[in-house]
Amino acid sequence: VPDWLKITAVTERESATRIFEALDMLGALAVTVESAEDNLDCDEFIPGPPKWRRQAVSGLFDGDTDSASMIAAVHQIASPDTHITTTRVPDRDWVLNSQQAFQPLQIAENLRICPVWYPPQTFDGQTILIKPGLAFGTGKHPSTALCLERLATLDLTDTTVLDWGCGSGILAVAALKFGASKALGVDIDHRALAASRELAVQNLVYDRLVVCRPEEVPYDFRCQLIIANLLARTLTDLAPTLGGHLTDDGKLLVSGILEDQAFDVISAFGSGYAFDTVSRDGWVMIIATRQ
């Protein structure tokens, strides 16, 4: 087909699931849900339907689909005053388009991130090769970039690292690239664990990375550096656990925190640390050094 038809209905949360199911039943090739609110802040990860009060539910159909009949069908499911729009989406080489959209990312003078399809180039530093995809953490988000920039300044020789909430594995792999002797990546999502393993293989550090679920972390595991790029509420809950795995001279890098949440996270870790913070675009990384 020359293009695709995108039908979007903006609705209250209570009706979003019905519209989602209706678009699916009408033969949508894909259905997505996005926030229709200005405030995108969400400080929890709970499996299930999104919690945004107003949601934009979109279905993607073949370009020759009768849009008028689709809109009429959605109106039968939703309220008559539901705002529905149609958009023509040009067909394209989606693989090539996504590859062109992700170019090499210079994190620091001695660290860059490159997609695996990018032609090799001489670089006097560490290069992390990635396949941008499912798991969170390609280095573009400020919370990830702040962690990577700090790792690039540390002497990690013979250091054991714990990456809690490892996602794509990019932070653990970066630590290993900068000299850490071994790293433990922890995540609740089996897809993140698989992505971390794959990233370690791509970057030739697979023999020094172990991944597991939180309940599988040995009780007596101790390390000199802990990295946790998570949400503020999760970090406050995890503070005692993370502290229990840190050596007496250890350091924590905790990120994924909005500026107005930093005080609560610092308070959760308590008085046994010296704290420093780095901010960017409304996000904060806390460096906590045990004292």
UniProtKB/TrEMBL annotation:
Keywords: Cytoplasm, Methyltransferase, S-adenosyl-L-methionine, Transferase. One of its GO terms (cellular component) is cytosol. GO terms for molecular function: protein-lysine N-methyltransferase activity. The keyword S-adenosyl-L-methionine applies. InterPro entries: Ribosomal_L11_MeTrfase_PrmA, Ribosomal_PrmA_MeTrfase, SAM-dependent_MTases_sf. One of its GO terms (biological process) is methylation. NCBIfam families: prmA (TIGR00406). Belongs to the methyltransferase superfamily. PrmA family. This is Ribosomal protein L11 methyltransferase. It comes from marine metagenome.
